[in-house]
Amino acid sequence: SEYATIQIALDATWENDTVLVQPGTYVESIVWPYLNGIKLISDGDSSNTIINPASPDDIVINIQDQGGGIVLDTTTLIIGFTISGSNNGNGIGISLNGTSPSLNKIQLINHSRGIDALNSNFVLLNSQISNCMDSGVYISSGAWIHTKIENTIFTGNTGYRGAGLYSKANFNAGDNE
């Protein structure tokens, strides 16, 4: 309640801080600060704490490696949100690049990709990914090696790569899907 948006609250954090989000619907596209151990936690749960993108084609939560020797690992947490895309499903729910957060009790609904992970080893627990048009989770370039997905339901995901989970690994001998 101290901040007008989730983004402003995250921008005010330091390493290992917790941002407690009150139940409600938030319309914004979030660029994660490059600090390890930040915890974004719903004070309600995924049924009443919802993040919608600012624009239908946006990434709702964007967590990117920005260099400088900092590694965003599984002490970085997102817990208890519905992250809903637009009706056209062109955006991405959570984009990870070179980072490895823990996601728990997350609902990703109506996106092109629910999670787009490049070179990221993440943890996804107790979640649901539904109605994504390209894939529920798209993993590429070695991200699958230490990724952990448990107790997660995939429903209604369709499109070019189909279904819930798509993994593409790049090996020295060429691309293997």
General description of the model:
The protein has 177 residues and is mainly beta. The chain is 3% helix and 45% strand. The chain has one helix and 17 strands. The strands form two sheets. Strands 1, 2, 4, 5, 7, 9, 11, 12, 14 and 15 form a ten-stranded parallel beta sheet that branches. It has a seven-stranded mixed beta sheet with strand order 3-6-8-10-13-16-17, with no helix packed on it. The termini are far apart. Residues 171-177 have low confidence and may be disordered.
Write the layout of secondary structure elements.
Elements: H1 6-11, E1 18-21, E2 24-27, E3 30-31, E4 39-42, E5 49-52, E6 59-64, E7 77-84, E8 92-97, E9 102-109, E10 113-118, E11 123-125, E12 128-130, E13 135-140, E14 148-150, E15 153-155, E16 165-171, E17 174-176
Parallel strand pairs: 1-4, 2-5, 3-6, 4-7, 5-7, 6-8, 7-9, 8-10, 9-11, 9-12, 10-13, 11-14, 12-15, 13-16
Antiparallel strand pairs: 16-17
Order of helices and strands: HEEEEEEEEEEEEEEEEE
**Share of helix, binned:** under 10%
Number of strands: 17
Shape: globular
Secondary structural class: mainly beta
* Main sheet properties: 10 strands, parallel
Q: Can you give the mean pLDDT?
A: 87
Number of helical runs?
1
**Oligomeric category:** single chain
Low-confidence stretches: 171-177
Spatial extent as radius of gyration: 15 Å
Beta-strand percent range:
over 45%
Distance between the termini: 45 Å
Features:
single chain; 177 residues; mainly beta; ten-stranded parallel sheet; seven-stranded mixed sheet; 1 helix; 3% helix; globular; disordered C terminus
